[in-house]
Design goal:
The chain has 11 helices and 12 strands. The protein is an alpha+beta fold and 332 residues long. The chain starts with a strand and ends with a strand.
């Protein structure tokens, strides 16, 4: 069986094609083909990297063609040195990582028009991600209209978080309407916990772990007995740690102040906090940690400040997760 996996993040598109037998392997097999697009490579284009058959390719994809990114990647499955298929019809199923499933979905789900509509309805809660997931779902539907598509939700792993942690201290009626901590990066945190147990040669159920997902989006999760019991992200992926372009946790009065005193609209505040804050906001240049570290090595004071803030919040966050567990066996 050939399975195409699509992972659309806030700053990248990662895709792999796997071939599996009837039994699932203990460890992920090497992909037949791997394609990535880094949208932070340049303000003008995304950097496309393709690997297959021992060959590597690098291309530039203009930002204006972002919606055609999936179709562009899949063409490299069929043509050139990286071709591993004679037809896209050889793909048996397509899996999508989807950031926000709300309270509707807590397990892998066959994508139907109803599921697609729900993902669209949740865009306000994951504005940097759910639109990209929909682009991928629609692109596959056009290219492979009869191939089943499966959504795997980042929020699913965190449905085990107890109510005392998941709910906010707001009027309970709002909690009943779905305003609560959902948590994100669950697929990554779940895999890291399982892999840590394998590397430590201990049963997952016996371990207290803190897993760190660090990238353009950052989150921490406390895992006890293989279950998420606390996590840094909340109602949306904006809460928690300082990130590439997201502010993380701040005084909730700040958006109100910006709107009342400076006349910013809801959309302007949303853009400021999601796309112009974090490392990018402090440095004034870039949310890419690689470039921030380069600035640190050059003595750039804004880069040094941004990195210090990033580490300070990361250490505080890890401490909070350890406290939730009452101790820790491993940091992963």
């Amino acid at each position: 069986m050939k399975i195409l996996v699509l992972n659309a993040g806030s700053s990248s598109q990662k895709s792999c094609l796997y071939e599996l037998g009837t039994d699932l392997p203990d460890h992920p097999p090497a992909p037949l083909w791997e394609g990535t697009i880094d949208w932070t490579a340049s303000p003008d284009y995304g950097l496309v990297k393709i690997r297959a058959q021992g060959h590597k390719q690098e291309q530039h994809l203009p930002m204006s063609q972002r919606q055609q990114a999936i179709a562009h990647l899949l063409q490299t499955l069929l043509h050139g040195d990286t071709a591993v298929l004679t037809s896209l019809e050889e793909i048996n199923v397509v899996g999508h990582r989807v950031v926000h499933g709300g309270q509707s979905y807590n397990q892998p789900t066959l994508i139907t028009p109803e599921v697609t509509a729900t993902i669209a309805q949740l865009i306000p809660l994951a504005p940097n991600h759910n639109p990209a997931h929909l682009e991928g779902i629609h692109a596959i539907a056009q290219l492979l209209p009869t191939t089943p598509q499966i959504a795997v939700f980042d929020t699913a792993f965190h449905t085990s978080i107890p109510a005392a942690v998941a709910l906010y201290p707001i009027p309970y009626e709002w909690s009943e309407q779905g305003i609560r901590r959902y948590g994100f990066h669950g697929i990554s945190h779940q895999y890291c916990a399982q892999r840590a147990a394998q590397l430590l040669n201990r049963p997952l159920e016996s371990l207290r772990l803190v897993s760190c997902h660090l990238g353009n989006g950052c989150s921490l999760t406390a895992v006890q007995g293989g279950r998420s019991i606390n996590t840094s992200m909340g109602f949306t992926p904006l809460e928690g740690l300082m990130m590439g372009t997201r502010c993380g946790s701040i005084d909730p009065a700040i958006p109100l102040y910006l709107m009342r005193q400076h006349g910013l609209s809801v959309d302007e505040v949303d853009t400021l906090l999601n796309k112009a804050s974090g490392l990018k906001g402090v440095t004034g240049e870039s949310g890419d940690l690689r470039l921030v570290l380069a600035g640190v090595s050059q003595g750039n004071p804004r880069a040094i400040l941004a990195f210090d803030m990033y580490i300070q919040r990361l250490v505080m966050g890890i401490g909070a997760m350890v406290a939730s567990l009452g101790g820790i066996d491993a940091l992963v």
